[in-house]
Automatic annotation (TrEMBL), chain A:
Keywords: ATP-binding, Nucleotide-binding, Transport. The keyword Lipid metabolism does not apply. This is ATP-binding cassette domain-containing protein. PROSITE patterns: ABC_TRANSPORTER_1, ABC_TRANSPORTER_2. Coiled coil: none annotated. It comes from the Bacteria. It comes from Streptomyces tuirus. Residues 17-261 form the ABC transporter domain. The keyword Hydrolase does not apply. InterPro entries: AAA+_ATPase, ABC_transp_ATP-bind, ABC_transporter-like_ATP-bd, ABC_transporter-like_CS, Oligopep_ABC_C, P-loop_NTPase.
Automatic annotation (TrEMBL), chain B:
GO terms for cellular component: plasma membrane. Coiled coil: none annotated. Keywords: ATP-binding, Cell membrane, Membrane, Nucleotide-binding, Transport. This is ABC transporter ATP-binding protein. It is a peripheral membrane protein. PANTHER family: DIPEPTIDE TRANSPORT ATP-BINDING PROTEIN DPPD, OLIGOPEPTIDE TRANSPORT ATP-BINDING PROTEIN APPD. Belongs to the ABC transporter superfamily. It comes from Streptomyces tuirus. It is found in: Cell membrane. The keyword Nucleotide-binding applies. It holds the Pfam family oligo_HPY. SUPFAM superfamilies: P-loop containing nucleoside triphosphate hydrolases.
C-alpha cells in the first residue's frame, strides 16, 4: 500500500440540542462519535451507511468545513509533511485547502447560475492567484477537456447543461488546484443510471491519470463496490466495520453490513430475494440505545449486546469489526448479479 | 420537418389497436400526447404513448430523466402542471363492468375528483408534498376515508389506525396522533402509502416512492407493495430509476425515451432478452455487485437532447451505436412484436419473423 495521505483518529462532531423557552442546551447529537480512518495516496475509500449515520458530517469535519469537537485529522502535505487540520490556523488552512476538495450531490444547487462555466472553473485559480490572463484561459480549457467537456463550453451558463454535464463542471472546478484528495459526497446519487456510469468512469480515469484519492460517500452499494478499494460502514456516528472491498462484500463480519448488503435490490428478476428485513428505525444520535447501538434491530443480538458496547477489533488483514460475535456468526455476503447477455451494441462498442 | 408525417401515421394506427396481449387491462392509454408551451418553444413531453396497465400486476416504467414518466402519471390523474396540457390521445379506466374515459372528463369535474384517491391513488417521491404539516397523520387518513367511504368520524379514525397497522407502521395508535415532521423519512413514506391505500384504489401510481430512501427502508416499502397487490389485487404503476427495483418488484416493464415508449415486455424478457439498443445499453451501464471492477462501466455516449429540440426519426438515433443512416434519422420505427407481450420500436426489428410492423405507423 502507498503512503497514507490522510489519517483520522477519534474524530467527533457533536451538535448541541437546544430546547425550552431559553433555548438552553438540553442534550447532544453525537453525529460523529469516534471515527478512525486512513486514506492512502491514490486510493478510494467509501463511507456507507443509512441516512443520518454521520457520513456527510464526517466529510465536512475532515475538511474543516465544520470544526471537529474532538479528534485528530492529519493531512500529509507533499512538501510540508504532516499538517494537523483540526487545530490548523487560518493561514495554514488556506495553504492546505487546494489539496483537499469536495464534490456534492446536487449539481444544480452547487453552481452559481450567474457565472459562466469558465468563470466557475477559474474561480479557485483566481482566488488562489494560481494563474492569470492567457495561462488562466488555457488551464480552464484543459480542465474542461479533462472532464469530457469542450473548451468552448466556458462561455455558457450552467442552466444550459444537463445534470451529468453540471457534475462534470463541479469536478473540473474541484480539480483546478491539483488536489490530492476529493471528498465526493453522494456525487453520483442524483444522476441518471447512464450518466452515473459516465461520472464513475470519469472519476476512475482521473484517479489513474492524476493519482487522486477519493473519500467516496454514498448509499449506493453497487456503485461503491465498483469504485472503492476499501469500505467503511457507519451506524449512528460510529464505524461498525471496515476493510478491503472484496472482504466486506463477500465475507462481512458485522450483522449490520450483512443486512445492508441483503437489502440491495439485484438487477436480475431471476434472482429474486426477499431479504430478512431490518425492523425498526435507525436510532436518533441524540439518544442512542445502550450497549451495541445496533442491538434493537440486530437479528443476532444476545443479552450482553444490550449492556456492553463492543470494541472495534481486527478480524483479518486490514479488516475491523465492532461486534461481540464477529468471529462466531455465519454472515452472508452480497449475492453476485449476473451480467446481462452480450449485445451487438456492446460488441460494436468495444 | 420529417418527423411530422411519421407521427401522424403513428397516431392513426395506435388509436385503432390494442397493443398488449393483456386480456384484462385496468387502464388503457392510447397515443397520448402532452405539450408544455414555454418561452423557448413547445416541449413535446409525450409524443404518442400507448400502453395498458395489466390488472393485479405491477407495471414498471423506466427511462432517462425527462423522458416523460411523471408526465404520464400526472396525465392519468389530470394533474399536469399548467400550461402543460393533453393535446391528443385517450386514457380509459376499466372497472369490472364500467369504463371511464378520463380524457373526456374535465380536470376539475366532480367525477374526476371522485376518481382521484378512490379509484386511482398516487404516491410521490417526497411524502411532504402529499402530507399536510398541520394535521396529524390519523386525521389526514380519516379525512380521506370520510370523503369516500363513511360519514362516521369515529369509524373513520379506527379505519385510519387499522390501515397504518396494515402498512406495517410500528405503534400505529401513537403514529396516528403524530404530525408528519415527527416521523422519519421511511415512516412518512409509509404514512403516505397508508393514505393512498385508505380507499382501496384499484390502481396505485407510485412515482419514485423509494428513490430518496435507504436500501433497507426501500426493501420494506417494496415488500409492503407486493403484499397489498397480493392481498387486494390492486394494480400498480411503478416509476423508478432503479433497475434493481424493477427486477425485484415488477411483472411487466415499459422503457421510455424522449416521450415515447421504445420497448415493453415481461420483466424477464426485458432483463434477459432486451431488444432495443437503449434498453440494452441501460442494462449494461449499471454497476453490478460481483462485476469485474477493473473493467470500466459501459456508457451511453452523449446525452439526452434538449427538450425543446425535436429529434426526427428514432429519438435514440443520435446516441445509438447501431443506427442505420438514412432510415433511423428519418422515420420513427413502428411497433414490432418480439414475442408474446414483448414489443419494440426499432428499425433493427422492422422485419422480425415473429412480428410485423403496423401498417401506416412506420409511415
Ligand atoms: N448542523 C447540524 N445541527 C444539528 N444536527 C445536525 C447538523 N448536521 C447534521 N446533524 C445531524 O447529525 C446526524 C448525521 O447527519 P449527516 O448529514 O452527517 O448524515 P448522513 O450520513 O450524511 O446522512 P444522509 O445519507 O441522509 O446524507 C443526523 O442525525 C443529523 O440530523
Ligand atoms: N412544468 C413543466 N414545464 C415545462 N416542461 C415540463 C414541465 N414538466 C415537465 N416538463 C417537460 O416534460 C418532459 C417530461 O418530464 P417528466 O417530469 O415526465 O420526466 P421524468 O421522466 O419523470 O423525469 P425524472 O426521472 O427526472 O423525474 C421533460 O422534457 C420536461 O422538461
Ligand atoms: S454486538 Fe450484538 S447486537 Fe451488536 S451487531 Fe453484534 S450481535 Fe448484533
Ligand atoms: S431505430 Fe435505429 S437508431 Fe433507433 S434504436 Fe433502433 S437501430 Fe438505434
Ligand atoms: Mg449526507
Ligand atoms: Mg419524474
Amino acid at each position: 500500500m502507498s503512503e497514507p495521505l490522510l489519517e483520522v483518529t477519534g474524530l467527533r462532531k457533536h451538535f448541541p440540542v437546544r430546547g425550552g423557552f431559553l433555548r438552553r442546551r438540553v442534550g447532544e447529537i453525537k453525529a460523529v462519535d469516534g471515527v478512525d480512518l486512513t486514506v492512502h495516496r491514490g486510493e478510494t475509500v467509501a463511507l456507507v451507511g443509512e441516512s443520518g449515520c454521520g457520513k456527510s458530517t464526517t466529510g465536512r469535519a475532515i475538511l474543516r468545513l465544520e470544526a471537529p469537537t474532538a479528534g485528530e485529522v492529519v493531512f500529509h502535505h507533499p512538501e510540508h509533511g504532516p499538517v494537523h487540520l483540526e487545530s490548523a490556523d487560518a493561514r495554514t488552512l488556506r495553504a492546505v485547502r487546494p489539496h483537499l476538495q469536495m464534490v456534492f450531490q446536487d449539481p444544480f444547487a452547487s453552481l452559481d447560475s450567474r457565472m459562466t462555466v469558465g468563470g466557475i472553473v477559474a474561480e479557485p485559480l483566481v482566488i488562489n492567484k494560481a494563474a492569470t490572463g492567457q495561462e488562466l484561459k488555457d488551464r480552464v480549457a484543459e480542465l474542461l477537456t479533462l472532464v469530457g467537456l469542450r473548451p468552448e463550453h466556458a462561455n455558457r451558463y450552467p442552466h444550459a447543461f444537463s445534470g451529468g454535464q453540471r457534475q462534470r463542471i463541479c469536478i473540473a472546478r474541484a480539480l483546478a488546484l491539483d488536489p490530492d484528495l476529493i471528498v465526493c459526497d453522494e456525487a453520483v446519487s442524483a444522476l441518471d443510471v447512464s450518466v452515473q456510469a459516465q461520472i464513475l468512469n470519469l472519476l476512475e480515469d482521473l484517479q489513474r491519470r492524476l493519482g487522486l484519492a477519493y473519500l467516496f460517500i454514498s448509499h449506493d452499494l453497487a456503485a461503491v463496490e465498483h469504485i472503492a478499494d476499501r469500505v467503511v460502514v457507519m451506524y449512528v456516528g460510529k464505524i461498525v466495520e471496515s476493510g478491503p472491498v472484496e472482504q466486506i462484500y463477500t465475507a462481512p463480519r458485522h450483522p449490520y453490513t450483512e443486512a445492508l448488503l441483503a437489502a440491495v435490490p439485484q438487477p436480475d428478476p431471476r434472482v429474486r430475494t426477499r431479504p430478512k428485513l431490518l425492523t425498526g428505525d435507525v436510532p436518533s444520535p441524540a439518544s442512542p440505545p445502550g450497549g451495541c447501538y445496533f442491538h434493537p434491530r440486530c437479528p443476532h443480538a444476545q443479552p450482553v449486546c444490550a449492556t456492553e458496547a463492543p470494541e472495534v477489533r481486527s478480524v483479518g488483514d486490514g479488516h475491523l469489526s465492532a461486534c461481540h460475535f464477529a468471529d462466531a456468526l455465519p454472515l452472508a455476503g452480497a449475492t453476485a448479479a449476473a451480467r446481462p447477455p452480450a449485445t451487438p451494441a456492446a460488441q460494436a462498442n468495444s | 420537418m420529417s418527423q411530422s408525417y411519421a407521427e401522424e401515421g403513428a397516431s392513426a394506427a395506435a388509436l385503432a389497436d390494442t397493443p398488449d396481449e393483456t386480456a384484462d387491462p385496468v387502464l388503457s392509454v392510447r397515443d397520448l400526447e402532452v405539450e408544455f408551451p414555454t418561452p423557448l418553444g413547445v416541449v413535446g413531453a409525450l409524443n404518442g404513448v400507448t400502453f395498458d396497465v395489466p390488472r393485479g400486476k405491477v407495471l414498471g416504467i423506466v427511462g432517462e430523466s425527462g423522458c416523460g414518466k411523471s408526465v404520464t402519471a400526472r396525465a392519468i390523474l389530470q394533474i399536469i402542471e399548467k400550461p402543460g396540457r393533453i393535446t391528443g390521445g385517450t386514457i380509459t379506466l376499466r372497472g369490472q363492468d364500467t369504463q371511464t374515459e378520463i380524457t373526456k372528463l374535465g380536470p376539475d369535474s366532480a367525477r374526476m375528483r371522485a376518481l382521484r384517491g378512490r379509484e386511482i391513488a398516487m404516491i410521490f417521491q417526497e411524502p411532504m408534498r402529499s402530507l399536510n404539516p398541520v394535521h396529524t397523520i390519523g386525521a389526514q387518513i380519516a379525512e380521506a376515508v370520510l370523503l369516500h367511504q363513511t360519514r362516521d368520524r369515529k369509524q373513520a379514525h379506527e379505519r385510519a389506525v387499522e390501515i397504518l397497522r396494515q402498512v406495517g407502521m410500528p405503534h400505529p395508535e401513537a403514529v396516528a396522533t403524530s404530525y408528519p415532521h415527527q416521523l422519519s423519512g421511511g415512516m412518512r413514506q409509509r404514512a403516505m402509502i397508508a393514505m393512498a391505500l385508505s380507499c382501496n384504489p384499484g390502481l396505485l401510481i407510485a412515482d419514485e416512492p423509494t428513490t430518496a430512501l435507504d436500501v433497507t427502508t426501500e426493501a420494506q416499502i417494496l415488500e409492503l407493495i407486493r403484499d397489498v397487490r397480493d392481498r387486494s389485487g390492486m394494480s400498480v404503476m411503478f416509476i423508478t430509476h432503479s433497475m434493481g427495483v424493477v427486477a425485484q418488484l415488477c411483472d411487466e416493464v415499459i422503457v421510455m425515451y424522449l416521450g415515447r415508449i421504445v420497448e415493453r415486455g415481461s420483466v424477464d424478457d426485458l432483463f434477459h432478452d432486451p431488444k432495443h439498443p437503449y434498453t440494452q445499453a441501460l442494462l449494461r451501464s449499471i454497476p453490478r455487485i460481483g462485476g469485474d471492477r477493473k473493467v470500466p462501466l459501459e456508457v451511453i455516449e452523449g446525452s439526452v437532447p434538449d427538450p425543446h429540440t425535436r429529434v426526427a426519426g428514432c429519438p435514440f438515433h443520435p446516441r445509438c451505436p447501431q443506427a442505420i443512416p438514412g432510415r433511423c434519422d428519418t422515420a420513427f420505427p413502428g411497433r414490432s412484436t418480439a414475442g408474446p407481450g414483448h414489443t419494440v420500436h426499432c428499425h433493427l426489428h422492422d422485419d422480425d419473423a415473429a412480428g410485423h410492423t403496423e401498417p401506416g405507423e412506420d409511415a
